[in-house]
Structures are given as structure tokens and as C-alpha cells.
TrEMBL record:
Segment forming the signal sequence: none
Methyltransferase in keyword set: no
HAMAP family found in the cross-reference section: Arg_succ_lyase
Cell compartment(s), UniProt: Cytoplasm
Domain Fumarate lyase N-terminal: 7-301
Species name: Heyndrickxia faecalis
Classification via Pfam families: ASL_C2, Lyase_1
Superkingdom per UniProt: Bacteria
Gene name in the database record: argH
InterPro entries in the cross-refs: Arg_succ_lyase_C, Argininosuccinate_lyase, Fumarase/histidase_N, Fumarate_lyase_CS, Fumarate_lyase_fam, Fumarate_lyase_N, L-Aspartase-like
Protein keywords: Amino-acid biosynthesis, Arginine biosynthesis, Cytoplasm, Lyase
Domain annotation Argininosuccinate lyase C-terminal: ranges: 364-432
Family classification: Belongs to the lyase 1 family. Argininosuccinate lyase subfamily.
Protein's name according to its UniProt entry: Argininosuccinate lyase
């Protein structure tokens, strides 16, 4: 079969080369972006008087027909035509005849593929932002239901100080908020248009790049044609943002796995989000958060993969760059799937308030508060810390928690203790008193919830 570029060749392409170098298997996902870019390009060619109106109209009609066929699953892509760009060009020529051969005037596949990728990343970035917000909504809903629910806060996975479950959940809200912000920020740079850069050096045709930019709705054109066709930093940024987002998803997933274990029993994931064991009838496995945690590997891998592809490349286009596609498709699919699952999984999970409260009560997590109590009575905090250390040790040795000790016992450690210590040690009080900005105190968490909701209502 004759190639679109076959003129200077005397031999057919080796079969293995053809299969190995073809990208149509995956870049057919860019079909509509490719057509969108071509429609703008040919429109501009017409307006600039580079192609006659008649050709422009034929080409546009042909492209639209092809889009329709692809939508209806009637288009047959072939490996012989290598990639989506040449497949569509070939289809166009079959559709409208020789006029189809004029579409590629003043353009190269190099600025074409870069344009398709910009369109794809721009669209996908917006979708990511939308899906992250859905998870944030679910978090806010759960947090609102748990404004009073107390749980142990941890450091080193050891109980540290009690917190509100709403507070713990909202920590993820803000991580996701920054993830959204990172995607919006990278959108600014994805919004540059490479089309019109030609193969690498520009073109001899009197094209109007600003017009194509306007038609495709980009904010600016790349000022340098070499840069336009040879960088994929906008793809890297997407992959990096995705990797950070996936880290957050993975940490949340790990907590969901941990909390639903028999050891914790803080939450129960809905049956519809769990699976069973083929041998142990009693099992209910948190497969979804486990898999989300596991999928982090490929998302990180895709970032490292493309960084490595680009790192030693001389300017401008090199075939290596075709390797930018599968990774980003995979990352986008993985994350979109993850975000779509997370929202309803969070919404439907049951929170075991009693278990959480027991974990808070049967514990020494209120020890800091006795230290604060003595410090407020004038004892230097360091000294107070040492005294409470002894009290905790005494408690452990006598099988008593801090609320179980008597006033006499407290006073044997320091005369500063009075009867109000028992109020101070109650978990509700311990939480409520942490009223510094951003703390877990009820008033702070209520304010935080308001802030979060306001953030979500922003356009
Ligand atoms: N399939 C190629 C890619 O994805 C399109 C650009 C090819 N350009 C070239 N000069 N071979 O990178």
C-alpha cells in the first residue's frame, strides 16, 4: 500500500517496522481533537487566501462526515496509515478526492500532533477538576454528618490527641483543593497553541496563527516554532499533578482500609463497594481502596516514563515523543475511575461513632491537656510535661486511664490540681478547647466547613 510520504522510497516498509512504529492503536483516541484542529486550520487557510473557498468547504464537509463515521463506529483505522493524523487524511482523500490533499498545506504532523495533545490535555484537565470537586462534595457531606464524632488523632500511628472525625476528613478536602488548583494552574500553560509551527521552523505560506488560535480558543500561540513542536512539558505537568493527586487518594485509601479492619472498626464500607473471598466465607474485603492505593504505582510510573523519554532529546521533533500518549491516557483513565468511585464510596460508608469514641476514651490521648492545665497555672510547660509523664506511667502501672484517677492521686503529683481537672479531661472538652485557627475545636471545624462549602460554590 502506498504511503502518504512514500515518494522518496524505493521499498515497502518492513512489516515489523510498520506494526512497531504505528500509533493508531492508541492515538485514535485523539480523532476528534485531530478533526477539530484540522477544521480550524483549513478555515484559516481559506481566510488567508491560501486555499480557495470551494476547497475549504469540501474539506470541512469531508472532515465532518468522517467525524460522524467515527462516532458511529463506521471508520476503519489501519496500521498501514500509521497514526490518527494520516488515517484521517487518507479517509478525507477517499471521501472528497484530490482536494483532500490540500488540508496539510502549511502544516506538519509535528505541529498537528502537538495541537491534538494540547486539546486533549486541556479537555481532560477540566474533567479532572470537575471530578475532584465531586469527591470534595462527598467529603463535606460526611464531615457535616460527623461534626460531633470524636476519634483519636494519630502521629506515628499511635493515638496522639482526640480530633473530630469531620476535621480528619476535611484534611483531605484541602489536599484535593490544592490538587484542583494545581490543575487549573497548569491549564494556563496548556492553553498555548503550537499549530502553525510547521515541522519545526515555521512555513512559507502566509498563515495567520492568531486566527487559528482564536478559532480553537487558546490564550496564546507558542512564540517559538522549535519549542512548539518539541516540548511536552504540559503533558508532564498533567502527569505530575496527577501523581500528587494520586498520593492523596492513596493515603485516604490506606486509612479507609485500616479503619475498616477488625482492629479498628471505625468505619464500614458499603457492601456494594466491597468484595468477598473465594475461600473464606466471612471475608468482606476493601478491594476498591486497596486497588486505588495500588494504582498509584502506574500513575507515578507514567510520570517517570515521560520524564525519561524527554530528558536527552535534541530539538526538535523525535519519534520518541510518540511515547507521550499511552502514559497520559492511562493516567487520565486511572484517575477518572478513581475519583468516580471515591465519591460514592465515601458517601455510603458507615461511621462507627461508638468504636471511635471508645478508642478516644480508653486512652491517654488527653495527657497533653493535663500538661496544658498545669502550665496555665504557672508551671513551666517542660516541668508539667515531666509530671504528666509520671502520672501516665502510674496510670499504666495501675490499669487506670487519666479520668479514672482520684483527685487525691492527682494531688500527690502536684498541689496545683483541683476538682476541675475532671472536666478538663473529658474528650468533648479536650476537643472543644483546641480552638486555635485551623484546630479541631468544634467552632473551628464549623468555620472550616463553611469555608469548604464556599470554596465548592465558587464557579
Ligand atoms: N504519531 C506521531 C506522534 O504521535 C505523529 C507525529 C509524527 N511526526 C513525524 N515526523 N513522524 O508523535
Amino acid at each position: 500500500m502506498s504511503k502518504l510520504w512514500g515518494g522518496r522510497f524505493t521499498k515497502e516498509t518492513n512489516q515489523l517496522v510498520e506494526t512497531y512504529t504505528a500509533s493508531i492503536g492508541y492515538d485514535q483516541r485523539l480523532a476528534f481533537e485531530d478533526i477539530e484542529g484540522s477544521l480550524a486550520h483549513v478555515q484559516m487557510l481559506g481566510e488567508c487566501g491560501i486555499l480557495p473557498e470551494n476547497d475549504v468547504e469540501q474539506i470541512k464537509a469531508g472532515l465532518r462526515k468522517i467525524a460522524e463515521k467515527i462516532k458511529n463506529g463506521e471508520a476503519a483505522f489501519t496500521v498501514e496509515n500509521e497514526d490518527i493524523h494520516m488515517n484521517i487524511e487518507k479517509m478525507l482523500m477517499d471521501e472528497i478526492g484530490p482536494a483532500g490533499g490540500k488540508l496539510h498545506t502549511g502544516r506538519s504532523r509535528n505541529d498537528q500532533v502537538a495541537t491534538d495533545m494540547h486539546l486533549y490535555v486541556r479537555k481532560t484537565t477540566k474533567e479532572m477538576i470537575r471530578l475532584i470537586a465531586l469527591v470534595q462534595e462527598a467529603i463535606v457531606t460526611k464531615a457535616k454528618e460527623n461534626k460531633e464524632t470524636m476519634m483519636p488523632g494519630y502521629t506515628h500511628l499511635q493515638r496522639a490527641q482526640p480530633v473530630l472525625f469531620a476535621h480528619h476528613l476535611l484534611a483531605y478536602f484541602w489536599m484535593l483543593e490544592r490538587d484542583k488548583e494545581r490543575f487549573s494552574d497548569s491549564l494556563k500553560r496548556t492553553d498555548w497553541l503550537p499549530l502553525g509551527a510547521g515541522a519545526l521552523a515555521g512555513t512559507t505560506f502566509p498563515i495567520d496563527r492568531e486566527r487559528t488560535r482564536e478559532l480553537l480558543g487558546f490564550s496564546r500561540i507558542y512564540p517559538n516554532s522549535l519549542d512548539a513542536v518539541s516540548d511536552r512539558d504540559f503533558v508532564l505537568e498533567f502527569l505530575a499533578n496527577a501523581a500528587i493527586l494520586m498520593t492523596h487518594i492513596s493515603r485516604l485509601s490506606e486509612e479507609l482500609v485500616l479503619w475498616s479492619s477488625q482492629e479498628f472498626q471505625f468505619i464500614e464500607l458499603d457492601d456494594s463497594f466491597c468484595t468477598g473471598s473465594s475461600i473464606m466465607p466471612q471475608k468482606k474485603n476493601p478491594d476498591v481502596p486497596e486497588l486505588l492505593r495500588g494504582k498509584t504505582g502506574r500513575v507515578f510510573g507514567n510520570l517517570i516514563g515521560l520524564l525519561t523519554v524527554l530528558k536527552g532529546l535534541p530539538l526538535a521533533y523525535n519519534k520518541d515523543m510518540q511515547e507521550d500518549k499511552e502514559g497520559i491516557f492511562d493516567t487520565a483513565d486511572t484517575l477518572q475511575g478513581a475519583l468516580k468511585l471515591l465519591a460514592p464510596m465515601i458517601e455510603t460508608m458507615k461511621v462507627n461513632r461508638e468504636k471511635m469514641f471508645r478508642a478516644v476514651s480508653n486512652d491517654y490521648a488527653n495527657a497533653t491537656d493535663i500538661a496544658d492545665y498545669l502550665a496555665k497555672k504557672g508551671l513551666p510547660f517542660r516541668e508539667a510535661h515531666a509530671v504528666i509523664g509520671q502520672i501516665v506511667l502510674y496510670g499504666i502501672q495501675h490499669g487506670k486511664y487519666l479520668l479514672d484517677l482520684t483527685l487525691d492521686e492527682y494531688q500527690s503529683f502536684s498541689p496545683l490540681f483541683e476538682a476541675d481537672i475532671f472536666e478538663v479531661l473529658k474528650p468533648e472538652h479536650v476537643v472543644k478547647m483546641r480552638n486555635s485557627a485551623g484546630g479541631t475545636g468544634h467552632a473551628q471545624v464549623a468555620a472550616q466547613l463553611q469555608m469548604a462549602e464556599k470554596q465548592l460554590r465558587k464557579p
